Amino acid sequence: MDVSSFLTNMPFEIFIIILAIIIAIVLLFIVFQWRKVSQSKNSIAMLEKEIQLKKMSMVEKDIESKRLMDNPIPMPKDQQDSLKAIRQSTTETRNEIGYLHSEINERLARLEAQTEQKKLEKMLKEIEAKEKKLNK
């Protein structure tokens, strides 16, 4: 092999080596990205399974609480009366709270309307005063 043939083949060999390095880098990048996507898919699948398990747990708790409500535990008469009195008191308190909320809302609405009326009356007086000034 003489020197001239070595020099003419050298740039082509360097081009092939550079091309191979670029291809290797691109392949590594693609492999890493594919791996990240795969891990993300696995994480999403795990989260979906956890959500399903939590939903099932909530449904089971709801069913259990409904079952307990439907099948009351037998209690002595005095305990039943006590619970009945508590429920009645709770209902009365809720009714009173509802009434108070309604009364507060109505009074606020009335106050807002009165404030708006006074503001409009004041504006009307100002307009009338300006009209009188202009007409003089």
Q: Overview of this structure, please?
A:
- The protein is flat.
- It has two helices and no strands.
- The model has no long low-confidence stretch (mean pLDDT 87).
- By secondary structure, the protein is mainly α.
- 93% of the residues lie in helices and 0% in strands.
- It folds into two domains: 1-71; 75-136.
Structural topology:
Blueprint: H1 3-70, H2 77-135
Biggest beta sheet attributes: none
Radius of gyration: 42 Å
Helicity, in percent?
over 70%
Q: Write the H/E string, N to C.
A: HH
Count every beta strand, where a strand is a DSSP E run of 2 or more residues: 0
Total helices: the number is: 2
Overall 3D form: flat
The count of domains is 2
Overall pLDDT confidence: 87
- Would you tell me the structural class of the helices and strands? mainly alpha
End-to-end span in angstroms?
A: 118 Å
pLDDT below 50 for ≥5 consecutive residues: which ranges? Answer: none
Oligomer: single chain
User: β content, as a range?
Assistant: under 5%
List keywords for this structure.
2 domains, flat, 136 residues, mainly alpha
What's the short story on this structure?
The chain has 136 residues and is mostly helical. It has helices spanning 3-70, 77-135. The relative contact order is 0.03.
